[in-house]
Design brief:
Its main location: cytoplasm. Residues 311-394 form the TGS domain. ATP binds at residues 31-36, 234. Hydrolyzes ATP, and can also hydrolyze GTP with lower efficiency. Has lower affinity for GTP. The chain has 396 residues and is α/β, with parallel strands linked by helices. It has two domains: 23-56 and 93-308, Rossmann fold, CATH 3.40.50.300; 312-394, Roll (Ubiquitin-like (UB roll)), CATH 3.10.20.30. Helix content is 42%, strand content 18%. It contains 16 helices and twelve strands. The strands form three sheets. Strands 2-4-1-5-6-7 form a six-stranded mixed sheet, sandwiched between helices. Strands 3-9-8 form a three-stranded mixed sheet. Helix 5 (141-174) packs antiparallel against helix 6 (179-199). The chain is flat. The two termini are 47 Å apart. 36% of the residues are buried. The model is unreliable at 5-9 (pLDDT under 50). Bound molecules: adenosine-5'-triphosphate (ATP) and magnesium ion. The site of magnesium ion (MG) has 5 residues, from helix 2.
Length: 396
């Protein structure tokens, strides 16, 4: 008989911190449009956009509601007193310059800010505007991407080298035979593997890791393990005509260096004009510009991409008082998902009454979903599916 597949192999641990309140940080060179982007995203002037490098010094944080048709539909159905959509927490930051890993610009403080988040929105400047100073002298997104990627990697190398030193020092005291010594040797081998990958110019999230290695990587909280969504900031004109001399090259750079990372072209200049418009005005604007019917803003797409890059999904709780989306990490089990609402729901978890969004949409009401036998009682082992509608039951 072939050996049974171990549970461990079928269930892959994810890179990154566990948890449901994950954050992305906007990263990029100075003066590429980060704060202006952040402002439009949060519809506030928190980011202090200004036409000079390093206009942003203190990080600013905003919670960005996720566009969500399922949520809108549920609100229509339940007509609740309170509506709470899913959010992505997004933070603005000062610009990063070449040499940051060794302390240039606002170097080390900057990199420690990046360490504190889970994902990265990297704003890449591809708009020409002589009025807006470029710290490197001219517009060259590939050079800029190379600078950021190098700084993040150099910082990781420094971090990993320190850890390796620590491991080697401790190893002597442990001797060779104990269990602890064996574990230490395994950890050292993994850290050496990480270092080799980084030294080869690759980002940690692009490596091939088994679960044990992922746990060690997660413990190190490395910068290049965090997912990146590349946001290419175009002039409004280029965004509208979907043409820019850099776009194909940027795509090529990502394919070569970080295959699979999302690339989203947008225009901060256009977003700034749209931000004060009503929905109808935005649709009219799209028509005027010759863009596809609907809202011409890329912000919804960007927020969704950031959320997805963090492996986040959401479930809903619905009733006349409130329709609410709860963000959880993919792979989460029912009790932990319930615990996002209240720790008692997790500690005294009994079961969940769960239906899928699709079933509710098909049958039109909870009662009919129940009549169709599709409202199910789920126990502790149940893994939440994106779009589940849950009602938790817990003991006294
Ligand atoms: N697509 C665009 N077209 C034209 N100008 C733009 C575009 N995007 C941003 N700008 C302009 O670039 C300037 C710098 O923007 P912003 O302050 O947002 O940059 P930043 O990346 O936050 O800079 P810092 O690193 O200094 O905080 C602003 O004057 C802004 O209006
Ligand atoms: Mg700024």
């Amino acid at each position: 008989m072939p050996p049974k597949k171990k549970n461990e192999e079928t269930k892959k641990i994810m890179l990154g911190r566990p948890g449901n309140n994950l954050k992305v940080r906007i990263v990029g060179l100075p003066n590429v449009g980060k704060s202006s982007f952040f402002n439009t995203l949060s519809q506030t002037d928190l980011g202090k956009a200004a036409n000079f490098p390093y206009a942003t010094i203190d990080p600013e944080e905003a919670r960005i509601p996720l566009p969500d048709e399922r949520f809108n539909w549920l609100c229509e159905l339940y007509k609740p007193a309170s509506k709470v959509p899913a959010f992505l927490t997004c933070i603005d930051i000062a610009g990063l310059t070449a040499g940051a890993s060794t302390g240039a610009g606002l170097g080390n403080a900057f990199l420690s800010h990046v360490r504190a988040v889970d994902g990265i929105f990297q704003v890449v400047r591809a708009f020409d505007d002589a009025e807006v100073i470029h710290v490197e002298g001219d517009v060259d997104p590939l050079r800029d991407m190379h600078i950021i990627s190098t700084e993040l990697r150099l910082k990781d190398i420094e971090w990993v080298e320190k850890d390796l030193e620590r491991l080697k020092k401790g190893a002597k005291a442990l001797g060779t035979s104990s269990l602890a010594a064996k574990a230490r040797a395994e950890e050292t081998a993994t850290v050496e593997k990480i270092l080799a990958l980084l030294a080869d110019g690759k980002d940690v999230r692009k490596g091939n890791w088994n679960n044990k290695e992922v746990e060690i990587i997660n413990g190190l909280n490395l910068l290049t393990a965090k997912p990146i969504t590349y946001l290419v900031n175009l002039s409004e004109k280029d965004f509208v005509r979907k043409k820019n001399k850099w776009l194909a090259k940027i795509k090529g750079w990502i394919d070569e260096n970080n295959p699979g990372d999302a690339l989203i072209p947008f225009s901060v200049a256009l977003e700034e004009r749209l931000v004060d418009m009503s929905d109808e005005e935005k649709i009219a604007e799209a028509e005027k510009l010759g863009l596809p019917k609907g809202n011409p803003s890329a912000l919804g797409k960007i927020t969704t991409a950031g959320y997805t890059s963090l492996d986040l999904i959401r479930y809903f709780t619905c009733g006349p008082d409130e329709v609410r989306a709860w963000t959880v990490r993919k792979g989460i089990k029912a009790p932990q998902a319930a615990g996002v609402i209240h720790s008692d729901f997790e500690n005294k978890f009994v079961c969940g009454e769960i239906m899928s969004y699709e079933d509710l949409k098909e049958h039109g009401s909870e009662a009919q979903v129940k009549a169709a036998g599709k409202l199910r009682q789920q126990g502790k082992p149940y893994e939440i599916v994106d779009g589940d509608i849950c009602y938790w039951k817990c003991g006294a």
